[in-house]
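Reproducibility note. Readers wishing to regenerate the assembly model reported in the main text can use the exact inputs given here. Chain order matters: entities are listed in the order in which they were concatenated for prediction.
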Amino acid sequence: MKQYFKYQGGKLPLPVFFPDATRAVVRTVDSQDIKATGTPGVLVNTYHLYLDLGRKILERFGGIREFMGWKGAVISDSGGFQVMSLAKRAGKRGGVTDKGVKFKLSGKKTLELTPETSIEFQMALKPDMAVVLDDFTLPNSTRSQAEESVERTILWAERSKKKFEEICDQQGLTEGKRPYLLAVVQGGENLKLRRLCAERLAEIGFDGYGYGGWPILDNGEFNYDVARTIARFTPKESFLYGLGIGKPEEVVNLVDMGFQIFDCVLPTRDARHKRLYVFDSASINQIDVRADNFYEFFSPQKQIHYVDDSPISLACDCLLCKNYSRAYLNHLFRIEELTALRLATIHNLRFYSILMEKLRPTGSDPVGV
RNA sequence: GCUGGGGUGGUGGAGUGGUCAAACACACGAGUCUGUAAAACUCGCGGCGCAAGCCUACCCAGGUUCGAACCCUGGCCCCAGCA
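Running the prediction on these inputs yields the following structure tokens for the assembly.
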């Protein structure tokens, strides 16, 4: 198990949660806001930034970090999730072939992403960790569909690593200077396939392995069996990464299984959808993340908060909780003022950063961002 | 006081003889959201019931009609214009 996550500004104690700054911004907040929440890093997305940004811009700025004025860590995602959310939607195979994925854009345009182009672009972003393009195993895939996505994921991982090493050699990025490279384990709910995928990826060799695909079962419960399988059949000294995971209690449980890196849209999207996370505790010190129901949701727009002069949470020290009342936030949401979204997002980011602080071994260095 | 328009659910506002427990919107309530097509979406919203369904409703009181929120008579109230 890794002791820390090395990035351009130093070392981060683990575990860490990175919110999704898909298009080089966490919606409604800026990089300084993110920093102020104690958030150590963000995840940016290859698919979106590939469409938004040209190479010239990245070259001029020397990477996405400088472009967005962010001093923390950065992981770049490969576009693998978009293979599912955009290319394979409605149960189709989309434009997925062994070569890569073709996305249909508006009009006649298409975007082709291959394992190689994804890595190339990610290297231009200059992240601290890059992710290989993977073929998302759709939920409820047939056995043969799942096998196909696993085979392709392994094939693509191999090609990604080759390209990655090529670029590292070209740029003189020796061991210790190059970013981490993460492979993604697919295979759906089939544990044998997950094991096969994990082992084959491990043979190729990566810095870390991700829990890919869709982690939620049909009954709405989190699929911890897959998490255990991935943890068990990957090298002990590597990172375990829960891609797009998850709810606070899911993060806690996965940390207990050895997972150390997480990213998810939940805290930021929930904030925009008026769902704030509140520790069920009277102070930050008293938070017990191993307790049942250690947090609850707060809905700021509700009528009962119209005249409520208390803070959103007693167990929080974010910009919102330190300075404003429930009534004021209620008002800001009612009049649809953008600041409501910003404050809510900042609050939920702080919730997750406190959560991760509580999950770190006592005595580990605070995140010095 | 005269003239004209109007009184429908928490609100605004459709409906103008049967298919109305009442469009649509807002408000309110309950949910969903997991490598961001998402400041989005779903559901409920007269009462009772798990439900099929039953009951009470369109200012008030009468009337016409097989049948009225819709037509007629009277009353009360509101709004606009003129005095």
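We highlight two features of this model. Chain A has a mean pLDDT of 94. The radius of gyration of chain A is 20 Å.
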